[in-house]
Amino acid sequence: MASHFPPDLLSEQIANQIKLQIRQGDLAPGAKLPSLRHYSQIKGVAKNTVVQAYELLVADGYVEPRHGSGFYVVGVPQAPVSAERWAPALDHALAGIGIDRSAFHLAGGGHSVGEGLPPSAWLENCRLDRYMHKIGRSGLGSVFRYGDPYGYLPLRQSISQKLGAYGIEARSDQIILTQGAYQAVDILIRHMVRPGDTVLVDAPGFYPTFNKLSLQGARIIGVPRTPLGPDLVFLKRALRASRAKLFFTQSVGHNPTGSDISAETARELLALAASAGLTIVDDDALADYKPGHCARLASLDQLENTIYVGSFSKSLSSVVRVGFLACAPRHVRELVSVKTVLSLNSSPFAERTVHAVITEGRFHKHVLDLQQRTRRAVKDALRQFGKHGATVFCTPEHSLFLWVKLPGVEDAAACTRALLERGFALTPGAIFLPEPGAVSPWFRFNVGFMQDAERMSALWRAIATQQRGA
Q: In angstroms, how far is CA 283 from the centroid of its own chain?
């Protein structure tokens, strides 16, 4: 039976299935893949879709074509970092040149221990292809039309229940679906920020938000992050001096530090927001990597002075970009209007796919698996950092990211440039600061990419060699 959903998504899912089989050893090096025709018949997809999937595998180094014979497994690739690709992107990112902060990570091709996404192997067991098949067959006539500007209602209802488990009371009509958390932030900035407005952000913080604010012409003030949350002494001074009305932060699973706001800091911050007329945007895109009992700002003030942003992109797939924002009823209509101007609506196909995943039982186990993987990875990463004399900003039990100073390194960007020549890419802390050209001794490490013992041993040796030569 032919599939009735986007072939580019299907080809990527097929490629990911085969990658998983190769990683797990089900397809050993030298094994021959089924012929294009045979595989298309097995999966019930167009032959061209299989061609695209095999081409992705070849491009990623998992498979090689042999003329007149077919496609054969090479194994799990260990591709080197390309200094030619990374160095220019790094320089632009440090200079704060537009969206090139994001391009720095795109240039890496997923080989950096500072990567912003989880390892693909952590997400592949979700088997999105199964749900895509189901939605493609059952949703004909609806998934390829413009949907509800608010987003697919059953998914909004499921998100309402999910937020309820966090202690956040939000009805489905207070939830707006978006194309990832990034679009949710864009909608909020377009609606709430005018050129010349002062906006507060975490420093260090999520640099794509800096990009959006800069494009909108905002004046950005970075609020120092502590292991317990935003520095409230600095925040009070900044509010008195600037009268800012908007603060973008992450209360738990902070990117890049991994810190969680303490209950005391959260209460003080919300009291300050109420007295100053400050709206807090709490970006919780990594919520699924944290246990639900972690205190979130929105659960303490019930969206009175907070707007909650969430996403499924980092827990399911960055290909299926579905995010959302939850806010007080007074904001909803105007935010939906902004969304409609920017993109008409979000993706009915992606929204229905996510809804199918989270309502059919697999998702809860998948989230628990992510949290267990993250906990183990954090424990192993902390052991490595302790062994090599590194300083860790804070030690959360669950976090995809850790904020780290390496011994003897004062300028993380300079160290990164030197390591690029040795085939390793780190992510220097200056990228996460709102001031272009800032210098920082800190690095962001993604604990999920520190599990390859051989690769990490080589990295630690390269760091030691670079430090001796500095």
A: 11
Rg (the chain; Cα; Å) = 23
Which residues span the domain enclosing 279?
126-362
**Of 108, 137, 121, nearest to 16 (Cα)?**
121
User: d(Cα 379, Cα 395) in Å, to the nearest integer?
Assistant: 9
> Is it true that the peptide bond before 204 is cis, omega within 30 degrees of 0?
yes
pLDDT tens-digit profile of 49-97?
Answer: 888 888 788 877 789 888 778 899 988 775 555 555 666 666 666 665 4
The first and second tokens of residue 426, run together, are 């780190």
> In terms of Cα–Cα distance, which of 289, 294, 198 is closest to 247?
198
Question: Can you give 432-452 as a three-state secondary structure string?
Answer: HCCCCCCCCCEEEEEHHHCCC
Residue 2 domain-assigned (yes or no) = no
Per the domain annotation, does 3 fall within a domain?
no
Query: What is the pTM assigned to this prediction?
Result: 0.81
Give the CATH number, domain containing residue 36: 1.10.10.10
Nearest Cα to Cα of residue 31 among 59, 66, 79: 66
Residue numbers of the chain with a pLDDT score lower than 70 = 1-9, 78-111, 127, 129, 133, 136-146, 469-470
Phi and psi at 261, nearest 5°, equal -70, 140
Q: How many domains does the chain have?
A: 3
Sorted by sequence, the CB contacts under 8 Å of residue 77 that are 6+ apart come out as 60, 61, 62
Q: What is the pLDDT of residues 273-284, one digit of tens each?
A: 999 999 999 999
Q: In this structure, are residues 8 and 14 in contact, taking their beta carbons and an 8 Å threshold?
A: no
Quick check: 132 and 10 in contact, CB under 8 A?
A: yes
Residue 401, strand partner residues = 446
